[in-house]
Design brief:
With about 160 residues, this protein is an alpha+beta fold. It has one domain. The chain has seven helices and six strands. It is globular, with a radius of gyration of 16 Å. About 20% of the residues are buried. The C terminus is likely disordered.
Length: about 160
Amino acid sequence: MDDLPFWKTKTLGEMSRREWESLCDGCAKCCLVKMEDEDTGATVFTNLHCRLLDAKTCLCSDYANRKQHVPECLKLTPAKVPKYSWLPKTCAYRLLEEGKDLPDWHYLVCGDREEVHRRGVSGRGRTVSESSVAEEDWIEHIVDWADRPPSAFARRRRKRV
């Protein structure tokens, strides 16, 4: 029992800052521009990423100072996880909050930070900067891949081949 990883023995609120930060799998989905449907209240993802996101690495180019550059950037905390229904179904914070385990492609499980990208879970190679598209055109960038698990993405890809 002592050999269990921290995410199986601690709640999100009990984790150290280092443990908390290590849960991020680097998919960059939380850095995508999201829009809310005025009629239904549903959140939709776009393929537009925050201007601070490095699209090649799927990492924030100025994580420590991101709120200074992007005031609307949300800081995720254990208390906020259940309130953010827009967190992708693949998000480690959401999964653990729901009592689920980390997926096999998460680097804390498999030991490889690139696996999230190889499995098609991340935004790598599928996004453009929000600053390159006029805001009135954002609606044309709505995507459905951002909230699907990789198995659904893989099945869809196999049908096209």
